[in-house]
Amino acid sequence: MNIFKVHSLRSRRIGVAFAAAILLAHAARAEPAGFIPINPTDQIRTMGRGLNILGYDPLWRDFQKARFQERHFRTIKEGGFQTVRVVLQAFSHMDADNRLDPGWLRTLDWAAETALSNGLTVILDEHDFNPCGSDAQTCKPKLLAFWEQVAEHIRTPRTRFCSRFLTSRITRSLRHYGTSG
Fold first, then answer.
1. Which H or E run contains 121?
2. Residues 6+ away with beta carbon under 8 Å from 15
3. Which of 52, 77, 155, 181 has the fewest CB atoms in 10 Å of its CB?
4. What pLDDT is recorded for position 30?
5. 88 pairs with which residues across the strands?
6. In the beta sheet, which residues pair with residue 93?
7. Ramachandran area for residue 17 (φ above 0: left; ψ -120 to 50: alpha; else beta)
8. Contact, 103 vs 92, CB < 8 A?
9. CA dist., res. 180 & res. 17, Å (int)
């Protein structure tokens, strides 16, 4: 048998097994009440053009010192953008037990709700790449705690709200250093 055919057959079997595992996991997962499924193709089409916001804005520490203002959401929409990616660096806003500061969550609510009310899709991007890139094992519990809290906090069904779990750099770090345990 041709070596390319063998490789291709193995790849197909692995691909089919992987797809079956994903489908089974998805079927076994209970959807929360009010969950609205979204076709991924439609979601991507809706997202359209986007830009990053709030990454280094002082509003995360003191809302009164915000450079980014409510009017900027309208300007973004009027400028032809459909999506904002809210760049978050939340680790410094967690206590020793990895709980997020309630004030930080209020700021997140303001950003998300204001973007949504201006017809923008919101992507949340936890972006603590420096601490995660240098120590994946320390990053893991913080990252998991972050997404557990944020997922619970934004639990309402929204079709124009998504999250970007990790930057590719952090994903590679977690894979490289292992995530079990």
1. strand 121-126
2. none
3. 181
4. 54
5. 126
6. none
7. alpha
8. no
9. 22
Q: What are phi and psi of 2, to 5 degrees?
A: -60, 135
With a cut of 50, which residues of the chain have pLDDT below it? 1-9, 11, 15-28, 159, 164-174, 177, 179-181
Q: Give the integer Cα–Cα distance in Å for 155 and 23.
A: 23
Angle subtended by helix axes 102-117 and 70-78, to nearest 10 = 30
Q: How far apart are CA 39 and CA 127, in angstroms?
A: 26
Neighbours of 90 (CB within 10 A): 24
* Phi, psi dihedral angles at 97 (to 5 degrees): -95, 15
Instruction: Give the per-residue pLDDT at 26.
Output: 46
Structure tokens at 141: 């519990």
CA distances from 169 to 30, 53, 129, 177 (A): 31, 20, 7, 12
How many helices (H) and strands (E) would you count in the chain? 7, 4
Closest CA to 75 of 132, 115, 31, 16: 115
Nearest to 90 by CA among 36, 14, 153: 153
Cβ contacts of 150 within 8 Å, gap of 6 or more: 100, 108, 124, 126, 163
CB atoms within 10 A of CB 120: 24
